[in-house]
Amino acid sequence: MSAQSADPRTRQLHLNLFVYPGGHHEAAWRHSVSPDPDRLLDIRFYQDLARAAELAAFDGVFFADGPALADNVRYASRFRLEPFTWLSAVAAATERIGLIATASTTYTEPYNLARLFASLDHLSGGRAGWNIVTTGAPQAARNFGLDAHPVHAERYERARDFLEAVGKLWDSWEDGALVADRRSGLFADTDRIHTVDHEGPLLKVRGPLNIPRSPQGRPVYVQAGSSEDGRAFAARYAEAVFTAHQTLRSGQEFYADIKQRAARLGRDPGKLLVLPGISPFIASTESEARRLHQEFNELTQPEYSLELLHRLLGVRLTQGELDGPVPRELIETGGERGNGSRFQLVLDIVEREQPTVRELLHRLAGARGHRVIAGTPEQVAGQLQQWYEQGAADGFNVMPPWLPGGFDVFAAQVVPILRERGLFRSEYEGGTLREHYGLARPLSRYEAARSAAAPVA
Amino acid sequence: MSAQSADPRTRQLHLNLFVYPGGHHEAAWRHSVSPDPDRLLDIRFYQDLARAAELAAFDGVFFADGPALADNVRYASRFRLEPFTWLSAVAAATERIGLIATASTTYTEPYNLARLFASLDHLSGGRAGWNIVTTGAPQAARNFGLDAHPVHAERYERARDFLEAVGKLWDSWEDGALVADRRSGLFADTDRIHTVDHEGPLLKVRGPLNIPRSPQGRPVYVQAGSSEDGRAFAARYAEAVFTAHQTLRSGQEFYADIKQRAARLGRDPGKLLVLPGISPFIASTESEARRLHQEFNELTQPEYSLELLHRLLGVRLTQGELDGPVPRELIETGGERGNGSRFQLVLDIVEREQPTVRELLHRLAGARGHRVIAGTPEQVAGQLQQWYEQGAADGFNVMPPWLPGGFDVFAAQVVPILRERGLFRSEYEGGTLREHYGLARPLSRYEAARSAAAPVA
Question: Any stretches that span the bilayer, and where are they (chains A, B) (predicted)?
Fold first, then answer.
């Protein structure tokens, strides 16, 4: 790994639990291994999951989000748990595990989002992470009074502007500006609280924020775009990248590319963690794991899956065509869709494996394009180790096909193998998500500027 | 009370604990009865407070909010705890008490706010309340890219539009639309999930919401405006009104007016609770309570207080003028300020009591214009009983001058007297805020329309 700077003797892999109501396999909620669907709106279900992940010393729990209802909610457990409320209640039930909230730069205001993250970071004692998204679902626009979803490039322009604005807000209180000196009556030293006066191409924000600087300074920046715009954005801002790859080679290419981009911008590539998604079916034999996977696939709804395929590739097919080949010539490669990394990933599967429509649908049912593997605990651990040691991953976003059981079996049977091989911690060394990820706490830019300007004594 | 519909034999008063970092008296954080100021950013401090209020069977805890930093943070504990994150973590530490979050219709988007409240209501098992504000602080505008804060009438126009939009979103999933039938594979019955297609004068929202209907249907609507626009809004939408009055007579006038307005709109006035704010200094003798209040007042900062007076009345004074009369002729009665209910309240004090500037500043230091009383537990209970029985209150927003002690003494010494007199519950009868307040759970408007349209068998 030319771009890998961490000492290989102390390097450890990182694991997040990606929580999704009902589990990541779209039909998981129908299978008898899943709990009663009533539990999917019970906060205790998620608190228990996070406690289990904390017991396994996972780096973080990760919540997806999007400000619109998914069309496929008719057949899949695809409502949304608003991440700030949900993760704040999870924070109250845990002590060490990181809390990564997905939030959109397209459909929120910088001042409001900066407050939500600063508060989550305060109340969790420094465990907040932000999965920065620009929102892919075009139907979101009409929930916000817009006639059309802004195009990809426009969304990324706003995202960059947004990051600059919220970065300044999170820095606006220097550390120690909250003086609370009872004798003098000075509560906050307003000389160390700064208006930010951000004026970007799209956003104007005056500041300062209305809450003191949080334990981590700001949330850890996580990002998931793999398009050209997404990679450029990640190389500049992200501290962890969540990414989808079907093959080791694709993972390696992405890993090398993103690390090199960061290095070219003068960043330490070791401070940009690459975390592919992995959705494991685990059983005591490989054939049993495959059988379980097959059982899940057989519970999927072709009507739902064909709709998903249409959204991904622009191809409208009927149930009569399920056992034929995927019609390569009907795939729409142009426009917004063709720019997306998920589109490319699915196109690669089609070209590499030439699956039937049904086979392709089953591939996508697992984790929406993320890698699904079925095997014994040793096989799963071996796959993770291979990606980790062969330059495709610094760790993984674990996406259990069903919850909580799909996580429990991973924690009980795969994690101990990773530990035996010296790849994963047995207990936490730090208390913040930044510490779990091996990232330094940033200094406020205003404090840094003041220090730089101060005369040397 | 002609407009009082509740049966006087079963009528009970309602009590919220209004939580404010550092307590409601602006100098409380400096007094030795207050805990170390470090605790003001510790979630456990607020969880403990809410647990204490729950032990006392209070209806709810109430969090103020505003999307800007208060100028007076230099001298007063006036940073903001973002209410949704903070209350979600409080929800996780409690079981029955209501959770009332202040949120602005001017500086949020209906879709985002609807999600936050639906999620808080889900994760708390139906305990969410919304203190609806339009945001009074003009400096907020520049945190959201606006050059000027929208004027009062414009803010209320958006507030009405906003309430219509979020009301439709909260109704968009009918009860029972989450079917989760494992056998058929139907997860959500999309025939019972509705796009709302709201097109108001200012806001367009398509919907549906991306989460099922919450335990209370929607949060309890709380509102605090007492201006003409505010009263009209409260009469139409509010289920509880938080209001500031210095005298019984002013409280009675407001109470009668708001109940009559509700009745004229065809509402049951008993379903609109009037809850004045009350900030009590309590000690075993009246003189001791007054001495404590005086100690707090002597810790205030004239520089801060004069600034507050300037914001409230438009009068700029110096410390040399503290012991002279308030210059009535310099008070600016025109414009935005003159429309505000808080302005009128302070003007009334000036005209009724003719205080010195210092005396007026001390009056305002207690709870920003809310009523401050100092006395024995019997005296405080007697005051509450008088307002409650003489048509000025259905209950109170209790604003302890300092926290947690100022609440603890109220719970330990005033609440038992209210119980002995049959005025306040000893334990909860219900589990939701709606049940504590005696309010019915609304049916989704879409479900209601469907039922109305269904043929009679």
Answer: none
pLDDT by residue (tens digit) across A354-404? 999 998 888 888 777 789 999 999 999 999 999 999 999 999 999 999 999
Contact B89 A92 (CB under 8 A): yes
Structure-token pair, residue A394? 């610094």
Rounded Cα gap, residues A445 and A425, in angstroms: 33
| Residue B310 neighbours by CB distance under 10 Å | 13
Q: What is the pLDDT of residues A216-237, one digit of tens each?
A: 999 999 998 788 889 999 999 9
pLDDT of residue B337: 63
Residues 6+ apart with CB under 8 A from A364: A305, A308, A309, A312, A346
**Ordered alpha helix ranges (H), B189-332:** 228-237, 248-264, 286-298, 302-313
What whole-number distance in Å separates Cα of residue A329 and Cα of residue A315?
10
In a 10 Å sphere around its CB, with 0-12 CB exposed, 13-18 middle and 19+ buried, how is residue A356 labelled? middle
Which ranges of chain B have pLDDT less than 50?
1-5, 457
Please count the residue pairs, one from chain A and one from chain B, whose beta carbons lie less than 8 angstroms apart.
208
Determine contact: B85 vs chain A, CB below 8 A.
yes
Whole-number Cα distances in Å, B180 to A35, A68, A213:
12, 20, 43
Q: Quick check: B362 and B300 in contact, CB under 8 A?
A: yes
Distances (CA, A) of A369 to A43, A294, A346, B73: 28, 17, 7, 50
Query: What pLDDT, on a 0 to 100 scale, did the predictor assign at position B278?
Result: 97
Residue matched to tokens 């605090």 = B224
Contact predicate B134/B225, CB 8 Å: yes
Judge contact between B74 and A187, C-beta under 8 A. yes
Question: Within 13 A of B262's CA, how many CA atoms are on the CB side?
Answer: 25
Q: Which residues touch B223 (CB under 8 Å, ≥6 apart)?
A: B131, B132, B133, B230, B233, B234, B237, B238, B240, B241, B242
Q: Which of B74, B123, B193 sits opposite A187 (nearest CB)?
A: B74
- CATH for A14-281+371-449 is 3.20.20.30
Q: Tell me whether residues B142 and A84 touch, CB distance under 8 A.
A: no
The secondary structure of residue A163, as a DSSP letter, is: H
Q: Rounded to whole angstroms, how far apart are CA atoms B91 and A92?
A: 9
This prediction has a pTM of 0.95
Q: How many Cβ atoms are within 10 Å of A227's Cβ, its own excluded? A: 16
Q: Please give the angle made by the CA atoms of A417, A419 and A425, to the nearest 5 degrees.
A: 150
Domain B14-280+372-446 of CATH type 3.50.50.60? no
DSSP annotation string for B15-72: EEEEE-TT-SSTTGGGSTTSPPGGGGG-HHHHHHHHHHHHHTT-SEEEE---SS--GG
Do A73 and B188 lie within an 8 Å CB cutoff? yes
pLDDT band at A323 (very low <50, low <70, confident <90, very high): very high
d(CA A219, CA A124): 11
Tell me the longest C-alpha to C-alpha distance in chain A.
Answer: 81
A14 backbone dihedrals φ, ψ, rounded to 5°? -115, 140
Question: How far is A338 from chain B, CA to nearest CA, in Å?
Answer: 27
The Cα B52–Cα B63 span in angstroms is 16
- Cα A209 to Cα A199: distance, rounded to the nearest angstrom: 16
List the single residue in B with minimal CA-CA distance to A208.
Answer: B69
Mutation target vs B (from A78, A119, A189; most B CBs, 10 A cutoff): A119
Contact B37 A178 (CB under 8 A): yes
CB contact under 8 A, A120 and B29: no
**Phi, psi of A264, deg, nearest 5:** -65, -25
